[in-house]
Design brief:
This protein is α+β, with helices and mostly antiparallel strands and 611 residues long. It has twelve helices and 24 strands. The longest helix has 17 residues. It starts with a helix and ends with a strand. It binds 2-acetamido-2-deoxy-beta-D-glucopyranose (8 copies).
Length: 611
Amino acid sequence: MYLHQLFVLGLLQVLGAHATQFLDRNLAYRSPFAEHPQLSHNTQEIQNRYLTHARRQVTDASFKDDHYPTFYGGEFGNSPFIWSGGINFTHSVASGDPLDTSVLLWTRAVPISPAGTSELPDQSVPICVSYKLFTSANLSGRPIDSGTAFTSYDVDFTVKLEATSLKPDTKYFFQFSDCTNPSLVSPIGTTRTLASPNTPARSVNKGKPLSIAVFSCSQFQAGWFNAYGFAAHNTTADIFVHLGDYIYESLGNGARIGRQVLGRELATIRDYRQRLNQYRTDTSLRALIRCRYLFELRDDHEVADNSWKAGTADSNDTAAGCAFSPSGACFTDRKLAAVRAYHEWMPIRQVDLRDKLRIWRNFQIGKLLDLTMLDTRQYERDITDVYYNTVVNTIAAFNNRSLLGATQEKWLYDTLSKSKARNAVWRIIGQQIIFTQLQLRESFNLDAWDGYRANRARVLDHLYKNKISNTVILAGDSHANWVSDLAHPNDTSYNPATGAGAIGVEFAGTAVTSGSSFGSGILPADADKMSRELVGVNADLQWSEGSFRGFFLLSIDADTLNATYYGMRNISFANLEGFPTAHFVVKNGENKLSRPVAGGTVGAGVLKSSL
Ligand SMILES: *[C@@H]1O[C@H](CO)[C@@H](O)[C@H](O)[C@H]1NC(C)=O
Ligand SMILES: *[C@@H]1O[C@H](CO)[C@@H](O)[C@H](O)[C@H]1NC(C)=O
Ligand SMILES: *[C@@H]1O[C@H](CO)[C@@H](O)[C@H](O)[C@H]1NC(C)=O
Ligand SMILES: *[C@@H]1O[C@H](CO)[C@@H](O)[C@H](O)[C@H]1NC(C)=O
Ligand SMILES: *[C@@H]1O[C@H](CO)[C@@H](O)[C@H](O)[C@H]1NC(C)=O
Ligand SMILES: *[C@@H]1O[C@H](CO)[C@@H](O)[C@H](O)[C@H]1NC(C)=O
Ligand SMILES: *[C@@H]1O[C@H](CO)[C@@H](O)[C@H](O)[C@H]1NC(C)=O
Ligand SMILES: *[C@@H]1O[C@H](CO)[C@@H](O)[C@H](O)[C@H]1NC(C)=O
């Protein structure tokens, strides 16, 4: 008996008990959440589709194909057919959202034409993949965890599953293979689990500082993802966090640098899948996600420009808005498509299977920190600045305006308080948009927290009133670097020179590639002129830099949290040339940037203290 027939025999025994379990094992079918007709798959229906096909195969004598191993046992109704013509792991592997004993593993398994033939793969049978996870890099010894899952065109051949029963704070190596041909394997991925929530702060990461690389705004056509490559190859980052705008919906023109995007402006599920697919062909991005794990958030461009809960700058959810969209899809349909494709391609957890859009979630990394990931964009955000609606100027400070929505806002306060109560040293809030008030000449960016002032005040009030220390807010979205002490805007009890009166720190990072908000391609000297003005006008802002594309790296232990900013030399071709632009220290209990800020000198941009 062939190995795959043995395998199928094994499958059958299990299938008798629970026919859809190999489909259910693939979390992509619950993309992004269960029990919703437009947003999840009925795996029973898919299973029935397979069975119908299987019956056809034996009853219709003219149907002949060797590539579906099957088992003609008594219980034919349960017989699974799986593709055995070979599969292509087209997009390597990835992992994400680890907990202390589990982590999500990801791959994509596409059926290929059997060797030597031009036969098109029949897509009406499931693809079956196995995975194994080991502690040794050469995959020797007994696997720590292993399992099997199906995928199919319904989920763009993505596979997302949870490896469980792992040891906390441990590095693992994993690989997928074709169930019908175990010698056909994916690249080997590296991942890790987090320390258990009760691990003492000084024991997390085996006592070494934990380092987190933070990215945002990676537009394919705007440049090469050198920042990803640099972080993967030239830093010791343990964790990668992307704060959103991981893909862009727009078409743009990257032909000049060999980065043209395929398709059109995104609107349908096919469009979003194609764009995610193309982004994942980037070698720097692959290197990054194959070797470390990822925590992901989405900002507007994962759906559409300046989106909010019911619309975007690109379209209104009206007949006119539908007509504007390239496919005629209304905003709501567009958002559903975007969210589905996102959950298929991103190794992120579905925290609440019944909460449609929820991606906000919290990770307790020992007693060292809580990493609290928010959704300030797609969940419940009230109307934002969509360019023509100047009314946002007048409503920006209304109390009844919410960026997070009531449920998430309450959860944030509870999470921060719980984190303090459990004696976690640091509270790191990963979110999309700039938190600190930033006056830009006469105006504010109303698509940032400046457009939701009461919501921002409530967050700060919660920190001050409950004496919650060591909060560090991360932000992306703005395509420039901004480092600030956290305090109520215009509060004169905060002292910009000493930092006294502050309640934390904000580290906002520039884009991986997207053009500077100071002016696309702006040179350092010109950007610094603007930065000088900005750090002069804005009390809380301690460093501003607007020329370089890049990312920043946090290095955290129980005594200090450091942030080192990196600028990439040139993103118009693939290279690993980056340099530190500034290094900041935050000391446990100080709730401000340590003075002198950045040690008094920076490699780029302007410090307030240098004025
Ligand atoms: C596998 O997929 C990659 C990426 O799409 C492609 O370049 C390659 O030709 C495929 N290999 C086979 C055998 O189909
Ligand atoms: C695999 O790695 C382990 C260490 O993790 C080592 O003991 C073993 O000899 C290696 N096996 C092979 C075949 O290289
Ligand atoms: C959306 O609606 C506003 C207000 O009615 C209008 O000014 C704008 O042109 C519309 N935009 C699109 C893309 O339809
Ligand atoms: C929100 O608050 C403003 C200002 O107080 C008020 O004019 C407006 O009617 C309120 N909107 C709603 C929906 O309650
Ligand atoms: C802070 O002061 C500036 C300048 O007077 C003003 O434009 C801004 O609205 C004030 N911010 C808040 C939150 O009151
Ligand atoms: C933070 O940086 C300082 C130097 O600026 C260094 O002494 C300290 O060890 C660093 N701490 C961590 C956790 O990386
Ligand atoms: C970046 O590299 C390109 C291609 O080599 C070159 O034309 C361009 O001048 C470089 N830009 C900078 C800022 O060095
Ligand atoms: C980053 O690492 C690569 C090789 O891993 C090396 O070629 C490159 O010079 C490094 N970059 C810097 C700025 O050190």
